[in-house]
Amino acid sequence: MHRKGFIFDLDGVIVDTAKYHYLAWKHLADELGIPFTKEQNEQFKGVSRKRCLEILLEWGELKVSQSQFNSWLAEKNEDYLQYIETMTASEILPDVPKVLNFLKEHNVPMALGSASKNARPILKKVGLIPYFTSIVDGTQVTKAKPDPEVFMIAAGELKVMPQHCIVFEDALAGIEAANRAGMTSIGIGKKEILTEARYVFKDFTEIELKFIKELAEL
Ligand code: G6P
Ligand code: MG
Prior knowledge:
The chain is 43% helix and 11% strand. The chain has helices at 18-32, 38-42, 49-59, 66-84, 96-105, 119-125, 149-158, 172-180, 209-215, and strands spanning 5-8, 110-113, 134-136, 165-169, 184-188, 199-201.
């Protein structure tokens, strides 16, 4: 038996903030006259704020000064922050507490592995800070997903070997990062999109505790 570690992405896995990121990007894209669809937004999931803006500007074939870039980056984040300001525990995705509580009761170490620089305040708002032994967010990583850095740091902090870590992710880039780290990847979302994931579930309501127990080797 090996000690297992569970690593959770935040946006779109634990909380329903993926829709707010989309709305904030859509708002900016409309303002700049750049078409932006929900399909395109899939490519922004798990990707750092800065990189998302670079991609958006590439799509719009816009070249801008550093100060203009920074000002749009700040605008997107301010817009996003307005959505999350009033967030409560009601925005924790269905059946996530079921899994977190089960793992906590069994003393299985858990980490957060998110590209977001807003991860800590969001976790605080929804009251989930105490569940995590380690919180690795966008303020600590230098290489964005699909680079495995964020999950490798989390595994290190949990003191669990990468091959004994299980990662929950809703982003293509995040699944790739978990796979590259040699971890077990669990996709939360659509099978047609998360094709590289080891397992895929629509959401946590589809995940039985029996499955979690097996993964954790309890
Ligand atoms: C998560 C989301 C991305 C977002 C990134 C940075 O990974 O899936 O869509 O761009 O975090 O978030 P931030 O809150 O720092 O802008
Ligand atoms: Mg996500």
